[in-house]
């Protein structure tokens, strides 16, 4: 019997292009028969305190950590400020990847900009990697139950 998986979708959501990329990944994941639910950190806001206050920061941090802990898999979009020609991944997303990996939650990497090198430590944490638009489209058919290792031929640094 296949158990559908709960996915934590990590990635920056600070501008419309980032949100559009995350929306696309979420739509593909929702088409996948091995996925039950997709959680996105920005989908729930903490309204009991002022945005940016210490209480708000603490509540959001703990809420996201709790959702990583209760997810079966983290899918991380590692594109960040692509439109500004800045290609280092978002630091918050990298924290989520490292936290998940350290807590034995498999991490699946997704990147739209396919012709760049990737940090070795980040690349090494991925159970599977979907690099480039054609590759990303395949995530709708990836078996999140078996979590087969999936490599991409990329340079690392």
Write up this protein:
The chain has 157 residues and is of the alpha/beta class. Helix content is 35%, strand content 17%. The chain contains 5 helices and 5 strands. It has a 5-stranded parallel β-sheet with strand order 2-1-3-4-5, sandwiched between helices. Helix 4 links the parallel strand 4 and strand 5. The N and C termini lie far apart (41 Å).
Fill in the keyword field for this structure:
17% strand; 157 residues; alpha/beta; 5-stranded parallel β-sheet
SSE inventory with pairings:
Elements: E1 5-10, H1 16-31, E2 35-39, H2 54-69, E3 73-77, H3 91-102, E4 107-111, H4 120-125, E5 126-131, H5 133-137
Helix content: 25-40%
Residue stretches low in confidence (pLDDT < 50, at least 5 long) are none
Q: What do the pLDDT scores average to? A: 93
Order of H and E elements: EHEHEHEHEH
Order the strands across the largest sheet as they lie in space: 2-1-3-4-5
Cα separation of the termini: 41 Å
Number of E strands: 5
**Major sheet details:** 5 strands, parallel
Work out the radius of gyration: 15 Å
Structural class, please? alpha/beta
* Number of continuous helical runs: 5
Shape: globular
Report the sheet-strand fraction: 15-25%
């Amino acid at each position: 019997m296949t158990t559908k998986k709960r996915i934590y979708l990590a990635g920056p959501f600070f501008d419309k292009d980032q949100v559009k990329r995350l929306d696309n990944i979420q739509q593909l994941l929702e088409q996948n028969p091995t996925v039950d639910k997709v959680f996105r950190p920005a989908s729930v806001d903490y309204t009991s305190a002022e945005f940016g206050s210490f209480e708000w920061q603490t509540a959001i941090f703990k809420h996201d950590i709790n959702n990583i802990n209760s997810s079966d898999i983290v899918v991380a979009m590692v594109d960040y400020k692509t439109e500004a020609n800045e290609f280092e991944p978002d630091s918050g997303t990298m924290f989520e990847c490292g936290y998940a990996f350290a807590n034995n939650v498999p991490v699946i990497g997704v990147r739209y900009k396919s012709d760049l090198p990737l940090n070795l430590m980040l690349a090494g944490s991925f159970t599977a990697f979907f690099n480039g638009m054609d590759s990303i489209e395949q995530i709708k058919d990836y078996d999140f139950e078996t979590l087969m290792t999936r490599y991409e031929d990329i340079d690392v640094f």
